[in-house]
Amino acid sequence: MPELRKDPVVGRWVIISTERGKRPSSFASVSKRVAAKMCPFCPGSEHHTPPEVMAYRTPGSEPNQPGWTLRVIPNKYPALRVEGDLERAPKGLYDKMNGVGAHEVIIETPDHACDIVDMSDESVRDIFWTYRERMLDLERDVRIKYILVFKNHGEAAGASLEHAHSQLIATPIIPKRVAEEMEGAKRYFEFKERCIFCDIVRQEISENERLVTDFDSFIAIQPFAPRFPFETWIIPKTHQSSYMEMSDADHLTLARCFKDILSRLKLALNDPPFNFILHTRPISKESREYYHWHFEIIPKLTKVAGFEWGSGIYINPTAPEESAAFLKEMKPERVKEVFRADKTGGDSV
Amino acid sequence: MPELRKDPVVGRWVIISTERGKRPSSFASVSKRVAAKMCPFCPGSEHHTPPEVMAYRTPGSEPNQPGWTLRVIPNKYPALRVEGDLERAPKGLYDKMNGVGAHEVIIETPDHACDIVDMSDESVRDIFWTYRERMLDLERDVRIKYILVFKNHGEAAGASLEHAHSQLIATPIIPKRVAEEMEGAKRYFEFKERCIFCDIVRQEISENERLVTDFDSFIAIQPFAPRFPFETWIIPKTHQSSYMEMSDADHLTLARCFKDILSRLKLALNDPPFNFILHTRPISKESREYYHWHFEIIPKLTKVAGFEWGSGIYINPTAPEESAAFLKEMKPERVKEVFRADKTGGDSV
């Protein structure tokens, strides 16, 4: 019998329909890489990108020259732009405003053939530290209400370049998906006087049915009502509304937790295309008591079709208890060995 | 400068980002067809499907035998099932219930190589009439709160069989997307004492910037804040909250309007994969004054990536004014001529 499950935060129902026949091992994915003859993110191509916003560099190296280990640049084709005023205006019954904001690219490594799972813990920590640095800088702009950090890995997940990178878009509005989480969390807080995410952490640890790893300050779970097979959330165990409340030391723990989970997903699903998204509270502090930051990782294994677009109800062929059990069995330390001789696509190195 | 636009009904912001470089003619799509050696939807294969729920048949032909022009069957792999009780239950802070509902397939034509644009007006009318018939039947089930009709055309849009068909899923909950439209429309009605969709129809006709066709009882528009390039809405001009309030005669007009629009999209985008969705009011009559049924047609031309999943904000590279102008120039009567000698994929006829 299919099962309807409700996400406790946003109230979104999903259909867990395991009878439709997809077992974890039946998703043979392999990220189709996007071949590029000239990669603008590789060292030596710095002049092909807009001038860098920040970089981690070896001492003595010059900006916009090789010598960096991580580099942040404005997106060459920004969805939103830094220049201009909002000029909110009606048009009959419609509303519009100028696309003011920011759109930056975090080039995670100089090594074209490298992904987060291949990098040192410290290099991955630098990525997470960079998100914090950029947020601290951008939130001083009074036009900005929210900063969304995300990553597209693999062509099917929307990556147009294969060189490992994440992005951030700073928006002059609070995104709908975040607003929905805030409303749901607020409603719960008013009723229970507790953070709903803290309660989720407690229940997931004690039930231990959807928990993939309990990683010191973080847990990684398959959520109770996942939209997609192998959807994974990483949540800090203590109450922190904003990503910027994370302790300095925990950036390294988070890096280790991410490497662990991405290695498990890569092994379980054969290098799937995926997106990850950081949900943190808006710059305004209003939701401090009831919001709780977390990452959502979404492997791209199924197609979103008419029913999902029209209803907002997702049909998921894999129960989260099943995907959690499958991921637990993976041995993350084996990822380099398994994928070593198996590079695909147009690597330029 | 990119532009932020807000959907007046659900309050969803989209980014119209035409600078990202996609012009209408740059979407070279062609629906990848899903080849099938044996098509279970073709005449003669009736025994490969569950027994039919209804069919239009030539006099004297037997159920589940050839002789039909349109056939409705339960989905062989249903997302929701007719049997059982809801058994709504908590699990700690979570909620679930049994996946009770219905999932049916409307096989639109016996001709494997035929799409809506190729069919006679009367055959297409039969499809729209069938939606009504099935809704009337299913809404007698007290467990059902909503009936969502949709179509997936082409593999990228989620079609697993290429033989022309639409589907319906009857759900024991009101889908989130519909609930959001109802809330938005209700808020507007409380403020203005007018239906927001009626106001949209008025403004679109008078502005004539996003109107593609004004078709007797219906208009087809590119909405002001479309999530996707060439997203198209078909809206009845007079206030009707439910699809079942449409007059008998208007079923034929709707068929002609649909053929017109789907022909324009096929010509403009070279047979794109697409979804369409019918949004009608829930079975309960509460939203009768402020809700207004309509179809949404979504060509599948872009990828949904991390930013969209994480924010609910869609980045659309094509302004609706631009796609409307492009679609207006198309000559729908030319579709048969242009695509006649150009059948792709595993047609079995």
Provide a quick synopsis of the model.
Two copies of one chain form a homodimer. The first copy, chain A, contains seven helices and 15 strands.
Task: Provide key terms for this protein.
homodimer, alpha+beta, HIT family, subunit A, 3-stranded mixed sheet, 15 strands, disordered C terminus
Q: Name the beta content range of chain A.
A: 15-25%
Overall structural class of chain A, as computed from helix and strand content, comes to alpha+beta
The oligomeric state is homodimer
The CATH class designation of chain A is Alpha Beta
The CATH topology of chain A is HIT family, subunit A
Mean pLDDT of chain A: 91
Named at the architecture level, the CATH assignment of chain A is 2-Layer Sandwich
Name the biggest interface.
A-B, 74 and 74 residues
- Count helical runs of chain A: 7
How are the strands ordered across the major sheet of chain A?
A: 3-4-7-9-8-13-14-12-11-10
Binned, the helix content of chain A reads: 25-40%
Describe the main β-sheet of chain A briefly. Answer: 10 strands, antiparallel
